[in-house]
Amino acid sequence: MLQVSGMFYTDDGVLTGPENTAGYTEEEIRVAGSVLGTVGAGQLKKIQREYMERHPHHIPLIFMADIINGFRTVFPIPLAQGCTFDPKLVEEGAAVAARESAASGLHLTFSPMADLVRDARWGRVMESTGEDAWLNGCFARAMVEGYQGRSGLREKGRIAACVKHFAGYGAPTAGRDYNTVELSERTLRDDYLPAYKEAIDAGAATVMTSFNTLDRIPSSANRRLMRDILRGEMGFEGVLISDWAAIEELCSHGVARDKEEAARLALEAGVDIDMMTNCYCRHLKELVESGAVSSALIDEAVLRILKLKNDLGLFEDPYKDADEREEKVLVLCDEHRKTARRMAAESFVLLKNDGILPLAGERTAFIGPYVANAEIYGAWSMFGTPETTVSIEQGIKNRGCGHAYFAEGCILSADFGRSEETAGKLLQEAVELAQKADKVVLALGEHRLQSGEAASRADITLPDCQMELFRQVCAVNKNVVVVLFSGRPLDIREICGQAAAVLAVWMPGTEGGNAIADVLFGDVNPSGRLSMSFPYSVGQVPIFYGQFRTGRPYIEGTEEKYFSRYLDIPNRPLYPFGYGLSYTTFAIGPVQLSAQQMRRTDRLRVTVTVKNTGTVGGSEVVQMYLADVNGSVARPVRELRGFCKVRLEPGEESEVSFEITEEMLRFHDIHMDYVSEPGVFRVFVGDCSETENGAAFVLE
Length: 700
Ligand code: BGC
What we know:
Helix content: 25-40%
Largest sheet: 6 strands, mixed
Distance between the termini: 53 Å
Bound molecules: beta-D-glucopyranose
């Protein structure tokens, strides 16, 4: 099936595809079976009506778009959503996105992205929920269930999900987007496939191929990956769509001589929809007629697409939920904004706090390029606007915080937009303001287009102009809180060395400014935990907590040379996965196991007590990690296998339990069988991936 992007009506009523880069003829546009990127109930109903009138086959179009972190109500970027450690909340966000987009006429979103990410140079880490395969699976499932619901795609306010990018797109060599991926079969299966699988098991209606090669074969032509693994082993029966132009790109990869061969390879691999090229619509007919391709392959793809349209109920009602009146009422309504505000606040990670936060109404200077900037919805939010987004300045004013002063300080980055002509003046104003203030909140960060697709960076520090502002402000005021905006973990070791507090707010979305005010003033106690490690420097990436044991494990702080270490930087990240502070403190008690021996059919209970030992209420994310002490192949030093977010008032104590089953201990062994192996396992329960609070048991 051909897909066109942004099909729309011009003022004089002509149906057109503006991003007609593939050189479609008008006739090709008219026979497309789906439309990408056009939204709006009125517009989509008009396109559908004209299409249905024109075509005697009466097969409706399906309208698709990238609704990644919300539609018009924008939620924090997925990487930030991962930091909530709250799949229920993430599901609620996806349901809001579905309601708004369904009313606006959409039927399908290209989300969730279940790609595992471990290299902060890659711009698309912002679209993933982070470096842990198991956590990603929890969130991918939550998103699918949020979009699709549990009662079938016909349900009002639901849209189909698309799991992407199958497979391994999150591991481009050297962190450069679209680059080659080299993964061993075991790494692919143990680490990269599980999150896609979880989304598929949750019922995701569609899957998208990835741009990259895997084992030197581009995904859109990879029969083994798509037919054997995705459909055969993982049991996926839905529609497989190529990524944007990925079929035509088989020619650039050099595995297809021309578009005809590209079409054949993709169809044979089982790709049903050709996104944004005309390989299928130009060549499949002749390929079948010449006998090069069996018509059974076409039938199979067509049937899957018809089934999807039928599951959405489009044959009965091709407009589904498109409704101009409802669109107006739902989009950006108070309830949706409330969820966005809550999710944003829960996604913030307090990286450092020497006691300066929360603010208490002192004379506070809010300085920096992100103070008044409302472009804080992330690179993939195509429907967010600055007009509907709350900046920090606005959020502070909404809250009414007394002595607050505002200054821009410097431009965001010399590479994006304005020149640095006014640099001197902006800096001077900011320093003067900082001098007079009791506390300074510096709102710094990456430009929203410095992360996302085609936005890899080799240097993951803040722009020079911002670092200059930071240094000058710190020189005149010691009480500096940095509010850090980014689409990825950054190298912020200088900032963390000098600032009194650092709050990572990612790209927080529509309600960002209000949520930041909530957290800075302590109305909401921060509870976000890192879904991706902050490296000490870019030299460490890819860095992740679940690395493998080596023959020469280095013990931090020792001076031995012949160990796995760097001469010039530590092995440890600046802040590890799972880390995050609160305005209160928690004590997690020793790990108690229901038994020291586990039979394969047992459920082992792991219990800890957790107590709020501080003076304000707050939430702790209790995390359980497992470590397989000996394996037939090298095992990760530990793996997350449980977490629980508990809210506790000061002095309150609660018991938190997890269950371990044999299934949770499986991996691909020396024979590539997916099994658990008898032996000793360690269990760690604590407040981050580096916790040493542990116990051990033996699997029989
Ligand atoms: C991206 C996909 C996206 C698609 C459609 C591609 O460039 O890789 O993630 O869904 O465009 O917009």
